[in-house]
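hey so u asked for the seq, here:
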Amino acid sequence: MVEVRLHPTPILGTDTTRGQTRVRARNDLRLWSFALPQGAEPAVAAALKDDFGLDWPSPVQSSGSTPVRALLTQPDQVLLILEDPADPAIPDLGPAYRTDLSDGHVVLEIEGPDVDAALERLSPIDVSLHAFPEGAYARTLMEHVPVTTLRTGHDRFLLVAARSYAASVEHAVLASLDNVLAT
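ran it, structure tokens below
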């Protein structure tokens, strides 16, 4: 009998620089969604604090930073972004129902001096530093693609989109950077 071995292959292998701005796929991140049963927020918030040292995120400001960050993606739903894919441990937030979203999403990191100009051409949100400080996030559209935009540094963002939109997000970001650099 033939033995078939499957090997994980990331959807994007992007790692490119346009001008001084780098765009790369962050295949080293794990995404976990936690849905909270009714009335479970206090227990889940306590688990988030005890297990990760994170405060409860607000609807527009994440809590934490590298290697773990929490976002309140909708009422009674928290998204954890973890930076250690080698750690096989499944995060546990008490009574919350958890789902591993890592394989169903793509995460692009865009970093550099032209990042704000490139993103303002793609999205209706104001990503300037004073309006969108480090840790801020928003669910928005970039062209026709739903994207969660998270500022992780002065000139650095994570863009999280469904895997089916990976090529569209990559194309939109790179084309916008090219347009910024051409002006």
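The mean pLDDT is 93. The longest strand covers residues 145-153.
lmk if thats what u needed
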